Amino acid sequence: MNQEIKKRTKWFMDARFGMFIHWGLYAIPACGEWMMSEKEMPVKEYEKYFYMFDPVDFNPRQWAKLAKKAGMKYAVLTAKHHDGFCLFDSALTDYKATNTKAGRDLVREFLDAFREEEIKTGLYFSIIDWHHPDFPKYGDRQHPMRNCEAYRDEKINFDRYLEYMHGQVKELVTGYGKLDILWFDFSYDDMCGEKWKATELIKMVRKYQPDVIIDNRLEGGGGKYGSIATENPLIYSGDFASPEQIIPPCGVRGEKGELIPWELCATMNNHWGYCNFDYEYKPAEMLIRKLVECVSKGGNMLLNVGPDARGRIPEQSVKILEEIGAWMEKNSESIYGCGISDIPKPEWGRYTQKNNTVYAHVYEAPLGALPLYGIGPDEPERIFYLADGSEMKRGEAWNTAMFTETAFVTFGEVAAYTYPLPDKTDTVLKIELKKK
Ligand code: GLC
To answer: Nearest residue CA, atom 5 of ligand 1?
Structure first.
């Protein structure tokens, strides 16, 4: 990995927690953003949603306030998804929010609202486009018309598509102020790298937005890192890997073992776009622990919401984000700017670390005193509960005497007694180690 990537991604890797927002016409049929492809729906039929689109409750300030409350430091909105519909006022198409009942540039409003809350902003942009006449159809892996004989011998001008796609990216990087993240999605088979004229695209983006952080999907995808994980990343390797719906078991490392910036993107239920029958929401407790897991493996978590057709973030998501926020309010110090600990994972939870401070995330109450695995009795300078700043009592006692290599703490007063954890989701102990 080169130093430039490292420098560019510094704030991003400190931020650790962001909001992904999948929103577009697909909120109306409400079965996820792949509906057009899944149902093999022709453009003409899908366009009915364009005429219906009327997000009367769209209020990005509310979204931004919610993200802030949840402790999220950045947000990424789908400026355009695979269906080709643009939430921004592109001069290159009529298929855009400005021409719907909404009548406004919704990307601009999103950016204004989130910037106002001092949340870093990013735009997701689909390099695949199922609406554009020059995008490959018949025989493509996922185009809605992939099986439609009428397109078998169709002649397309893919260069014209690329010109359109590059033109739209240029609109986004030149017309909306400083963007913090550009999230391209996605490459597959030979539709990858230079097929997208990726070098040219990146050079153009960097000209206008030298510091923007770019994902790895001009080359890779949710299941493939690409050259970012090699010694010689290509110019379009991106700045971070983007594993999707999976936390890489050991984080992401390059050929020489060095850490590669990475970000898990994950849904709250099982869909990115709004789905009115998917109630499989992951509980806040689980999501908090997954965030901690990402941090403990050196990565970020970009957690998705799929606002509905009226522009509202689903109630369940709001509730979960508020619960996460309540935990973050007291414990975010163990997340922001933290990463992999020098000490191996303890069996009752996880460690995250920032310089000389180790944060113990305790998920399982011990019987008697808690062994701080990997930390010797003389190593801690001080140990606190992070949530309230109170001091923890050491747990060394007559019955720990034979475990001389390990420091112990108690959650009460008597080391041999068993106490419940103050926070069942994740009780965080702040362990300041003595300087070596
Ligand atoms: C994908 C999907 C998609 C979603 C995304 C999020 O690869 O095509 O619909 O936007 O990943 O990571």
So the answer is: 185
